[in-house]
Specification:
With about 80 residues, the protein is mainly alpha-helical. The chain has helices at about 15-20, 35-45, 50-65, 70-80, and strands at about 5-10, 25-30. Strand 1 (about 5-10), helix 1 (about 15-20) and strand 2 form a beta-alpha-beta unit.
Length: about 80
Amino acid sequence: AACGLPLIGSDRCGAASQYLVDWHNGLRFPPDRIDELANCLEIVSGLTKEQLRMWGRKSSEIAGSHTAKHWSETLIDAVALR
């Protein structure tokens, strides 16, 4: 995401919950479904250059919102809940 690229991620990938918005900057697939991964790859390979650039820009925007301050606040909140 930080590199400004479209994403394809497994539902079980923790980073996907933070960085991947389905059909906004990439696609998700269930990890036990290789056919779904193949489908995601096929869809992304069929996108136009402009669509790929748009998804890449959206990835950069999402990644840019996850600053060190954001992560430190998340950690503090998580520790406070315990």
